[in-house]
Amino acid sequence: DQYFEDSIIGYLNLSVDEHADVILTDILPHRVFNCVTVEHGGQSDYRDSIREVLKVGGYHPHRIDVEGVDFWLRTN
Prior knowledge:
Elements (H helix, E strand, L loop, with lengths): L7 E8 L4 H8 L4 E8 L4 H13 L2 E5 L5 E6 L2
Parallel strand pairs: 1-2
Antiparallel strand pairs: 2-4, 3-4
């Protein structure tokens, strides 16, 4: 909440690291972003978990695994 005053935000760029659990539990389920990019560097554990949360949250893959980065859009 200290970083996001609004519930709908235009863009989020995530760099996946040891804070992936915070991203999965505290940020993505409680905010709506029009576009999300995820820099995962091929780390399959984090990448797969975040992809699943994004799918459930109504995001659709736009470009996947482009040099270790996923691009997701929310259309609704």
